[in-house]
Amino acid sequence: MAKEPLNAAAERAGLRVVDDPDDASLALVDLTAPGCGPAVVELLTSLNGPHLTLIAVVSPEPRGFAAVDTLRPADIITHQGLPHELTWRLQRAAERHREREEQARSQTDLALLLELTADYAESSDVEALLHGVTRRLAEQLDIARATLVMVGGGVDEGVIVAASDDPGMKDLRIDLARYPEIREVVRTGKPVVMQEAATHPLLGDLERQAVAARGIHAIAALPLPIRGQVRGVLLLRAAGRRRAFSTREIDFLTTVAHATAVALRSASVLQSVQTARLAAEEKAASFKPYQLFFAHVSEGVAILDDEAAVLSLNPSGASMLDTTAGEARGKHLNQITQPVDDGVLMELVTSASRGEARMGVDVVVRTPAGRCLTLSMSAAPLRDEDAATILSFRDVTHARKLEDELRNTKDFLERLIDSSVDAIIAADLKGRIILFNKGAEAMCGYTAQEAQEKLNALQLYPPGEAQRVMAQLRGPDMGGKGRLSLTRQELMHRSGERVPVNMTASIVYEGGRESFTVGIFTDLRDRVQLERKLYDVETRLEESEKNAVIVALAGTAAHELNQPLTSVMGYAELLKRKLKEEDFAYRPVDIIYREAERMAEIVRKIGKITRLELKSYVGAKQILDLDKASSHEE
C-alpha cells in the first residue's frame, strides 16, 4: 500500500511510522501485494519479530482470510475498509500491544522478585548475594550500573557493598557530598528519581557535568529501611538506549529494596542473636532488685536497654499491654506496644537515653488482643554506665475520652452562645466579666477581651441599677430566689447611649453558695422605635378624626343657620324699605339687618372650616380660631 495514507492514519492514531523493524512495536503487512511472502518471513525472523504485533491486509475472499492462519495477526483489514478503518485498527492494536508488553514485564519482574526472595532465604554468603542482586537488576532493566550503598548514622560517608559491574567491589568508602541523590533519600526516607539527570536541580554543577560526561540519562535511588531508619540506598543509573525509569519500574525497584533491607536485617540478626541473648540475660539479672519493687506498683514499668529492647516488664505493665513479662523480654519496645505514631515513642526513649527525663507524654498503642489504648508515658535514665532507661506508663484512655467529650461539649456551648443574637453576660460576685458573647459585643460596644480585662458589670447599668437587679435576684418576688423573670431594663452602651432591653437573669450556685450571675438581654431599640412610630401614627389618626368631625359639624351648622339668617335678612330689608330714616323703628331694623349680615359672614367661615385651630380665651380656656381654621380656603 502507499506510504502516504499509512503515515496519515498513523498520525491520527498517535503513532509514528519507522523504517527499521527493530524500532517498531506494530507491523502492517499487505498480504495482497505480489511476492510479499519472503518479506513477511524476513520480518518475523528478525531480532524484534517475536515482539511485534501484526495487522494484516487481506483480500475480501475465503482464500485471503485463510492466508493469515499461520501468522495469527492481532487484527485483519481488507482493502475496502482500509481508508476508513485503518486508524481505528491501529489504535486498537497499539493498545493491545501495550497491554501485552506490560503483562510480560510484570511477569518478568515477578519472576525475578521470586528468585531474589528465594536467594535471600537460602543464601548465607551475604556479599555474593548482594552482588547477584545488583547484577540481575542491571541485566533485567538494561541499565549501566546498579549499586548498593550502606550509610551510617550521619550522611557524610557511605560504603559501596556491591556493584553490578564489578564482583570484587566491596567496602569502598565514598564521600556522600558527591551524591546528593543519596543524601536526599537518607533525609526524606523516600525514593528519588531524576529522569533528566544532566539538568536536574538536585545536582550541583560538578555533578551535572560528571553525569553528562558519562552519558547517564536517568538516576533512581531507593531507600533500604532497617528498623525505621534508612541504612542503605539502592542506586541505579541508566545510560545508552535506556532513557528513563517508568512508574512500574520504580514500584518494582522499591519492592526489591524493601526485600533487600529485610534480608540485610535478618543476616545481621542471625550473626548477633547469640551474643545479644547472653547480654540481655545478664542485664535482666542485674535489674532483679528493681523487678521486686516494681511488681507491686499499679503503673506499668519497663526497663529498656540502650537499643530500646525490653529487659524487664512488671505485672501491671504486662497486663496493660496484654502480654507477659517473659514474652516481652528481649523484644523491641515498638514491637510490644505497636504505637500509632512510633516517632513520639522513640523520641521519648531517645531523650531518656541522652539523660533527659520526660514526663506525661501521651502515646496511642495497640495490644495483641486488639485493644487501642492511650498511655501516659514517662521516661528517665536509670544508670548512666549501661545507658538503660526506665519507662513508666498508665492507662489514661478513659480519662482522655472524657476530656475530649468535655472539650467538644465546651466548644459546642461556646459556639451556641456566640451564635445567639441576644446578649449573654456572666460575671462573678465582684462584677468581673467572665462571659461576654458576640451579641453582648454588638449591644454594648465592647469586645469580649475588653470586657473581661477592663470592665466591671456595674458599668453596664445606669447608676444604682446593678444593685437593684441583685436585690431582685435574691428576693422571692420576681421569679423566686436566684431567678429574675422577664423585666424591662436599660444597659449603658460604650458611647453613653442607654439601650432598652428585656432581661432575664439567674444566680449560679456551687455547693449552695453563690458563684456567679448570668443575664440574657434582648435589644429593644428597634421595638421602641417601632412603638414610637405607631404612637405618632395613632396620634395623627386621632387628630384627623377630630378634624373630620369638626368639619362635618361646621358644614351642618352652616347649612342649618343659613336658612333662618336668610329669612331674617329678607324681612329686615323689607321693613327698611317701608320705613323712612326719620322713623323711630328705622334704626333698630337697620341694626338687625347689619348684625344678620355679620352672622351670615360668620356662618360662611364656619362652612369653610377644614381643620382644628385653637386660640386662648378667658383664663386657661381655648376656643376655635375661626379665621385660621378657614383661612386656607381664602
From TrEMBL:
Molecular-function GO terms, alphabetical: phosphorelay sensor kinase activity
PROSITE patterns on file: PAS (PS50112)
The organism's place on the tree of life at top rank: Bacteria
Top enzyme class: transferase
Catalytic activity field: ATP + protein L-histidine = ADP + protein N-phospho-L-histidine
Chain ranges of the PAS domain: 409-474
Pfam families documented for this protein: GAF_2 (PF13185), HisKA (PF00512), PAS (PF00989), PAS_4 (PF08448)
Cited NCBIfam families: sensory_box (TIGR00229)
Name of the protein in question: histidine kinase
E.C. number: 2.7.13.3
Any Gene Ontology biological process: regulation of DNA-templated transcription
